[in-house]
Design goal:
Blueprint lengths: L3 H30 L5 H13 L2 H12 L4 H10 L7 H25 L3 H9 L4 H12 L1 H16 L3 H7 L9 H10 L3 H26 L7
Helix pairs in contact: 1-5, 1-8, 1-10, 2-5, 3-9, 5-8, 5-9, 6-7, 8-11, 10-11
Length: about 220
């Protein structure tokens, strides 16, 4: 059994989860603390990756990021290589898989923060960003950790969207999920079983660690 797909999966998933955490927490904070036109539409679009068939979402991304698209041509003009069918495309697929989980759980946690605490801090002269960083984020830690953990696990197991926009290129874009599919198709049962076992262990360990971290009592700074 080769370890390359597993290592690539961990690299892709780690990068995707970091991006999803940064963007997801920011979007959750924006939707909780601000009322703006199109907020409901934004929430719908953020939820869409959870319900759309992976092939449909992959097709949209392939159309938006392919070599003939505006974004695809712009990317290629800057980096001198296409975006699709590269490890970066796999990161995008993982990012979109993780993002809805981060946003939804973080938003739910932020909505539970006692508004009297933020109002008191604002009354004492704390600017909104400082209130967000020192009160809202620490008190929402459990929800953030839960969302990040779920997002990591979901990104780690992504198959359909990754296949559509990153391809299944051994040594380049073949993640563990894709390698399992190839092994099963080729009747390499021992290899498939080994990959399944290791991938499952990583996912369960991540969920367990996330659960333990989320159980710690949050407190504001």
């Amino acid at each position: 059994m080769t370890w390359d797909p597993l290592l690539l999966s961990l690299q892709v998933t780690s990068a995707a989860t970091v991006l999803a955490t940064i963007v997801g927490v920011a979007l959750a904070g924006l939707m909780v603390r601000s009322r703006f036109p199109g907020r409901d539409l934004l929430e719908t679009l953020l939820t869409a990756p959870m319900v759309l068939p992976p092939t449909v979402l992959g097709y949209y991304l392939l159309t938006a990021l392919g070599r003939t698209s505006i974004l695809g041509r712009a990317y290629e003009s800057v980096f001198s290589e296409p975006l699709v069918f590269t490890p970066r495309a796999a990161v995008i697929a993982g990012f979109l898989a993780a993002l809805p989980f981060v946003v939804k759980t973080t938003r739910a946690a932020m909505e539970e923060v006692d508004p009297r605490l933020t109002a008191a801090a604002a009354t004492l002269g704390a600017p909104p960003f400082r209130v967000f960083v020192t009160i809202v984020l620490p008190l929402s830690r459990s929800g953030i950790v839960a969302g990040v953990t779920l997002g990591f696990a979901r990104s780690l197991g992504d198959f359909g969207v990754t296949l559509m926009i990153a391809g299944n290129i051994p040594g380049l874009t073949q993640t563990a999920s894709l390698a399992i599919y190839d092994a099963v198709q080729a009747n390499r049962e021992a290899e498939a079983a080994g990959l399944v076992t290791v991938l499952s262990a990583f996912a369960v360990a991540a969920l367990y660690a996330g659960t333990k971290l989320a159980q710690r009592k949050p407190h504001a700074f």
